[in-house]
Amino acid sequence: MNLPLVLQIAANLIALAVALWLGWSPAYIILLFWAENIVVALWQVPRILLAGGDDPLPSRLFLIGFFLVHYGLFTFVHGVFVFQLFLHQNMNLDTLAAFFGQHGPMLAVAGMVAAHGGRFVTDLSDGTLARLTPQKAMSEPYGRIVVLHLVVIGSGFLLEMVPMPVVGLVLLTLVKTMMDIRNGRLRAPVKEIPNHVA
């Protein structure tokens, strides 16, 4: 059983349940999917630290710092677009705190943390993480997040015209889940790190 994928699908369903329970518009679930960028980044830090290879700790810490700045800027700009295009307001700490400080969004984010944590634990226990270089671990999130959110945002524009928000919520969650399943199935086995790789 692909436990990380099962946990990811469960997290998507939790997000959908919260959205339906609170009567969200599709814009809010797009915001929730944007928040997954941050969850991914947090789990990527221990992945870089514990990846295989002989890279010394200072080198790994440099990669972590570079990743957090670069990926953080990407996430920030993406968040600005989500707020401007779908929520029609500026993104700031107050608006983020007001949304994610509520019990519903907190529950949905907790599901995402658990899903990505399950992947981390699985990769650590089955040796996948040991077969990654820190550089490879650092680059992991970019391809998935870019494709996923281009699809979700593109779908969001179309679904904003749907008169029933429930339909938009379900379809957006379905699109994201299909992308997660595709990424989970296409995740190639990691080859052993050659002995000469530092």
Commentary on this structure:
- This protein is mostly helical.
- It has one domain (3-184).
- It is built from seven helices and no strands.
- Helix 2 (26-50) runs antiparallel to helix 6.
- The chain is globular, with a radius of gyration of 18 Å.
- The mean pLDDT is 86.
List the helices and strands in order.
HHHHHHH
Briefly note the structural class of the backbone: mainly alpha
Number of domains: 1
Q: Mind describing the biggest β-sheet?
A: none
Q: Unreliable stretches, pLDDT < 50, 5 or more residues?
A: none
Distance between the termini: 33 Å
List strands and helices in order, with pairings:
Layout: H1 3-22, H2 26-50, H3 57-87, H4 93-100, H5 103-125, H6 134-159, H7 165-185
Could you provide a short overview of the structure?
Helices cover 78% and strands 0% of the residues.
Jot down its keywords.
single chain, 198 residues, mainly alpha, 78% helix, 0% strand, globular
